[in-house]
Specification:
The complex is a heterodimer of chains A (256) and B (282). Chain A is α/β, with parallel strands linked by helices and 256 residues long. Chain A has helices spanning 43-50, 78-86, 96-99, 106-116, 122-135, 152-164, 182-199, 210-216, 234-239, 244-251, and strands spanning 5-14, 17-27, 32-37, 58-65, 69-72, 89-92, 170-174, 202-207, 219-224, 227-233. Chain A has 2 domains: 1-88 and 168-176 and 208-256, P-loop containing nucleotide triphosphate hydrolases (Rossmann fold, 3-Layer(aba) Sandwich); 89-167, no CATH class. Chain A is built from 10 helices and 10 strands. Chain A is globular, with a radius of gyration of 18 Å. Chain A starts with a strand and ends in a 5-residue tail after the last helix. Chain B has 282 residues and is α/β, with parallel strands linked by helices. In chain B, the strands form 3 sheets. Chain B has a 7-stranded mixed beta sheet with strand order 1-9-8-5-4-2-3. In chain B, helix 1 packs across helix 2 (50-59). The N and C termini of chain B lie far apart (52 Å). The chains are: A alpha/beta (256), B alpha/beta (282). At the A-B interface, helix 2, helix 4 and helix 5 of A face helix 5 of B.
Chain lengths: 256, 282
C-alpha cells in the first residue's frame, strides 16, 4: 500500500538549537496521526515543515499527488506547492484569526478557496458555502456576517469549513481546540471526528491535549526536545506508555 | 530669476527621460505588468499626477500637441497647471480638442471621442496595485501576480454582491489584460472600462508608488465579473442638459440647496463640440 504522506529524516535547526530532528513516519489514506508533547518540543516546527511553511534543513516530505504519484513537496516548484496548499491540503490554525479573513463575510471566507481555484459563478459559490456552513453548524442567517462578530468556537468551525470546502485529502491542524472552553471543545471534536470519518480525510493533529488525540487520532507520536521519543497506536501508547516522558505526560492529566 | 531656457526640454534631464522610456518599453512589452522606475521629485505635490507628468515628459517631442484633462474637464486646477507646466518647460502646442492632441494626459477619465493610433493617452495613477487593500504585503502581491493567483480579487466582488446585491465597485474596476495580469485602470469610472480596448497606446504612471505600466493598442482588456453577475458599465440614467447626449458619462451638479440638480457631460470638450455642432445646424 502506498502511503499518502511519507516523511523521511526531517531536521530543522534554529542556529545551533534543534527544532526537530530525525522524524520519520508514513501516513496512510484515512488515517489520523496525533503529535503530542510539551511546549517547545518541536511539534509546531515539525507541522510547519510538513505543510511547507518552513523549509527544513534535511530530509524529504513525499506526498502522493493525484496525477504524478509520489512527489517531494520540498523540491517541487512554488506554484505547484501553493496549488497543493489550496486544493489537496488544508491547514487549521490554532487561532482562527490567522486562518480567516476577518474583514470578509463568513460566506466569502468559505468561497475564497473556491474562487482561488477558478469558481466564477456567484450563485454556485454561495450555495456551496451555505452547505458547508450548515455542516459545521453555523446558522444560514450568519452567512453574511463578518467573523469578527462570531464567538471563538464559531470562528474555529468557520475556519474548518473554509479549509474543507475544496475536499482536501490531508489536513494539518495546529492545536485546533486550544483556547476554547471544554464544552465548545467537545462539540468541535465531535464535529471534526464526524467530518474526518465521513470524508475519509487524513489528518495530522498537533496538540498538547491528550483527550483530543484519544478521541481523534489513530496513531500517536510523542515528542520531546525535538525528537520523537515514542510512537504507536494511540490507545497502546496512552494505556501502556514506555518512555519516561510519556509516562509523566499520561500521569499528569488531571482527573475530575 | 529663473530663465525658462535653463530647463531641459520638458523639465526632466535626458538621462531621466531615458530611464523612464526604458520602463515604458518594458511595460508595453508586458501589458499590465507594473514596472518599477526611479520616480523623480517633481515641482508639484504627490497626488497631483507626478507619475503622469513624468511619463508625459518622457514621451513628448517638440512637434507634439498636448492636452490635459482632469475628470474629463480641461479647465480645472489640476489640468490647467499641468498644461501650463509643459507649455513653459517644453514649449509644446496645447489644445483642448481631443482630436487635435497627440499626447493626452488624463486624471480619472477616458475621452468620449475614440482615440486614434497616432495618439498617446497618459494616466495619472494614485495606487497602481489592484490587490493593495486585499493583501497589504507588497512582497506577497508581487508573488500573487507572478503566479496568477487572482482569486482574492473575486472575493472583493463577492463581498460587493453580498452586501449591496450587485457589484458596487464603480471606479478603479479591476481588469485582466491580455488574459494575464490583473491591473488597476486608475480610478476611471467603470463606464470607461470597455474603452480600454482602443487604437491608441495607454501609459500609466504612478509617481509616489514608482510604477509604470501600459496597455499597447488593440490589447484585450476584460473587466472581472461573475458568470451570473456580468460586468455592467453603469452611468446616470439621464441625458446631458447642455448637449442632450445619452451616450456620455455624466457629472451630477447640485444647483441649489432645495434639491435642484442637473446632469452634464463630464468630458467638456465632447460636450462643447456637440453644442457648437447643433448650433451650426440650426
Amino acid at each position: 500500500m502506498i502511503p499518502l504522506l511519507s516523511v523521511n529524516g526531517i531536521e530543522k535547526r534554529y542556529g545551533a538549537r534543534i527544532g526537530c530532528k530525525d522524524v520519520n513516519f508514513d501516513l496512510y489514506e484515512g488515517e489520523v496521526m496525533g503529535i503530542v508533547g510539551e511546549s517547545g518540543s518541536g511539534k509546531s516546527t515539525l507541522l510547519n515543515c510538513l505543510a511547507g511553511h518552513l523549509a527544513p534543513d534535511h530530509g524529504e516530505v513525499l506526498f502522493a499527488t493525484r496525477h504524478d504519484g509520489m512527489r517531494n513537496t520540498l523540491t517541487m516548484s512554488e506554484p505547484e506547492r501553493r496549488m497543493l496548499a489550496r486544493t489537496d491540503w488544508a491547514f487549521v490554525h490554532q487561532n482562527p484569526r490567522d486562518g480567516l479573513r476577518m474583514g470578509v463575510s463568513a460566506g466569502g471566507n468559505v468561497g475564497e478557496r473556491l474562487m482561488s481555484i477558478g469558481a466564477r459563478h456567484y450563485g454556485q459559490i454561495r450555495q456551496t458555502a451555505g452547505e458547508w456552513l450548515d455542516r459545521v453548524e453555523i446558522a444560514e442567517d450568519r452567512m453574511d456576517d463578518r467573523p469578527s462578530s462570531f464567538s471563538g468556537g464559531m470562528q474555529q468551525r468557520l475556519q474548518i469549513a473554509r479549509n474543507l470546502v475544496t475536499a482536501p485529502r490531508l489536513i494539518f491542524m495546529d492545536e485546533p481546540t486550544g483556547g476554547l472552553d471544554v464544552s465548545v471543545q467537545a462539540r468541535l471534536l465531535d464535529l471534526l471526528r464526524g467530518l474526518v470519518r465521513q470524508m475519509g480525510l487524513s489528518a495530522i493533529i498537533v496538540t498538547h491535549d491528550l483527550a483530543v488525540v484519544r478521541l481523534l487520532a489513530d496513531r500517536l507520536m510523542v515528542m520531546k526536545g525535538g525528537h520523537v521519543v515514542e510512537s504507536g497506536l494511540t490507545d497502546q501508547v496512552l494505556d501502556d506508555p514506555q518512555h519516561a516522558y510519556t509516562q509523566l505526560l499520561v500521569s499528569s492529566v488531571l482527573q475530575v | 530669476m529663473t530663465n525658462d531656457a535653463q530647463y531641459n526640454f520638458a523639465y526632466l534631464d535626458e538621462q531621466t527621460k531615458r530611464m523612464i522610456r526604458r520602463a515604458i518599453l518594458k511595460g508595453v512589452a508586458i501589458p499590465g505588468y507594473q514596472v518599477p522606475f526611479a520616480s523623480r521629485e517633481m515641482p508639484m505635490p504627490y497626488g497631483w499626477g507626478t507619475g503622469g507628468v513624468q511619463v508625459s515628459a518622457a514621451v513628448l517631442t517638440p512637434d507634439d500637441t498636448f492636452k490635459v484633462i482632469d475628470q474629463g474637464a480641461d479647465d480645472t486646477t489640476n489640468a490647467v497647471s499641468i498644461r501650463r507646466f509643459f507649455q513653459k518647460t517644453a514649449g509644446v502646442a496645447v489644445t483642448e480638442r481631443t482630436s487635435e492632441a497627440s499626447v493626452i494626459q488624463t486624471r480619472h477619465r477616458i475621452p468620449e471621442e475614440p482615440l486614434r493610433e497616432d495618439q498617446i493617452l497618459v494616466y495619472q495613477v494614485p495606487i497602481p496595485e489592484p490587490l493593495r487593500f486585499l493583501e497589504p504585503r507588497e512582497s506577497e502581491t508581487r508573488k500573487m501576480h507572478s503566479l496568477q493567483e487572482y482569486g482574492l480579487m473575486h472575493v472583493k466582488l463577492y463581498e460587493d454582491i453580498t452586501r449591496h446585491g450587485q457589484i458596487a465597485t464603480s471606479y478603479a474596476y479591476p481588469v485582466r489584460v491580455e488574459g494575464r495580469y490583473v491591473m488597476d485602470p486608475s480610478p476611471i469610472p467603470k463606464f470607461d472600462n470597455p474603452k480600454l480596448e482602443m487604437d491608441a497606446i495607454q501609459l500609466f504612471g504612478a509617481g509616489r508608488e514608482q510604477r509604470i505600466y501600459a496597455i499597447p493598442p488593440h490589447t484585450s482588456v476584460a473587466s472581472l465579473d461573475f458568470d451570473d453577475h456580468p460586468f455592467d458599465p453603469a452611468k446616470a440614467d439621464h441625458p446631458c442638459v447642455l448637449c442632450g447626449t445619452e451616450e456620455s458619462y455624466l457629472d451630477e451638479v447640485i444647483t441649489d440647496d432645495e434639491g435642484g440638480r442637473m446632469f452634464v457631460c463630464s468630458d467638456t470638450d465632447f460636450c462643447r463640440s456637440r453644442q457648437s455642432h447643433s448650433e451650426a445646424r440650426r
